[in-house]
Design brief:
Keywords: DNA-binding, Transcription, Transcription regulation. This is Putative DNA-binding transcriptional regulator YafY. The structure is a single chain. The protein has 12 helices and 11 strands. It is of the alpha+beta class. It has 4 domains: about 60 residues, Winged helix-like DNA-binding domain superfamily/Winged helix DNA-binding domain (Arc Repressor Mutant, subunit A, Orthogonal Bundle), CATH 1.10.10; about 50 residues; about 100 residues, Roll (SH3 type barrels), CATH 2.30.30; about 80 residues, Alpha-Beta Plaits. Strands 6-5-4-3-7 form a 5-stranded antiparallel sheet, with helices on one face. A 4-stranded antiparallel sheet has the order 9-10-8-11. The longest helix has 18 residues.
Length: about 325
């Protein structure tokens, strides 16, 4: 970053909080405190009303802000919430870009709003057991894919399949990315398979952004593709009976597993599901097999018996 860009960025940072310490500026831009002091002096000489001194922190005169864009308090709160979510569910690169954007956004708020949002940020937490893109290996995959989608660039990935655990290199034309069941997925046209494929990002070991572009007109939109997949899925129907006292434990999971209908009876609720994986549903149901009854189909009951017998043999 050249000095002019850095001075502009420092000015924006000064507008993001009531007081910004020199150490914060130095750490953000990877410069020494001596350089920070020189940059602050340059801003002052340029007519920027900076208040403060080395060791105490810096601020701008109340009312001075650039650019002339204003946010409501409610919008600021929503952005703080979004920042917390993105930091836990996206890759390192995307999180850093959002942090930079948030500094710019906060810079146009009034001082009392900055203080309130600073305090609110410390009162919001997102506890996620594992961020699938948090490891060093995949830190910028999501950010690179967003660049590919924006510029319509092809992407080359090294991917390992889930079932067979076979690794291959694929050149793909991205349709979009989505987050579901705790994972990020890429939908893309695979030139190797000559068909659309769904790639889980935590199974991608390398990702390179190409220079060749592709035509979006030759592909459906992400939503169109997902809707087409849903309508073409070979779904299996399951019916279970859940006692009322156990129902609360399924309030969220039941929708993820494909709930389509509920019927309430005297002492239980009957739930009907449509799902694409019989074994996956049965194994999920085993978590509650001591209290939830599997009504149909018979093939699922037999599968459950086989799994339970297998568990029993391993315990002998």
């Amino acid at each position: 970053m050249n000095r002019v860009d850095r001075l502009t960025a420092i000015l924006t940072q000064l507008q993001s909080k009531r007081v910004v310490k020199g150490k914060e500026i130095a750490e953000r831009f990877g410069i020494s405190l001596r350089t920070v002091y020189r940059d602050i002096r340059a801003l002052e000489e340029g007519g920027i009303p900076v208040i403060g001194e080395a060791g105490m922190g810096y601020s701008l005169v109340e009312g001075y802000r650039l650019p002339p864009v204003m946010f409501t308090q409610e919008e600021g709160m929503a952005l703080i919430l979004a920042e917390k979510l993105v930091s836990q569910l996206s890759d390192k690169g995307s999180s850093q870009h959002l942090n930079s954007a948030m500094i710019k956004i906060k810079s146009v708020l009034k001082n009392h709003q900055k203080d309130e949002l600073e305090s609110l940020g410390q009162q919001i937490g997102v506890l996620f057991h594992h961020n699938p893109l948090s490891d060093v290996q995949s830190k910028d995959y999501l950010n690179l894919l967003l660049q590919a989608l924006s510029g319509k660039f092809i992407v080359t990935i090294t991917y390992t399949t889930f079932e067979e655990e076979k690794t291959s290199t694929r050149t793909v034309e991205p349709l979009g990315v989505y987050f579901s069941f705790g994972q990020w997925y890429l939908i893309a046209w695979c030139r190797l398979r000559r068909d659309y494929r769904n790639f889980r990002l935590d199974r991608v070991s390398s990702l390179q952004l190409g220079t060749e572009t592709y035509s979006q007109k030759s592909h459906p939109s992400l939503l169109e593709y997902l809707e087409k997949v849903r309508s073409a899925e070979n779904l299996f129907e399951f019916t279970i009976a859940v006692p009322f006292e156990q129902e609360k434990y399924l309030r969220v999971q039941k929708y993820n597993m494909g709930l389509v209908m509920e019927t309430r009876h005297k002492d239980h609720v009957e739930m009907k599901f449509m799902t694409s994986s019989s074994e996956g549903f049965v194994r999920w149901l085993l978590q509650m097999a001591d209290s939830v009854k599997l009504i149909a189909p018979e093939s699922a009951k037999e599968m459950m018996r086989e799994i339970v017998n297998g568990i029993s043999r391993k315990l002998d």
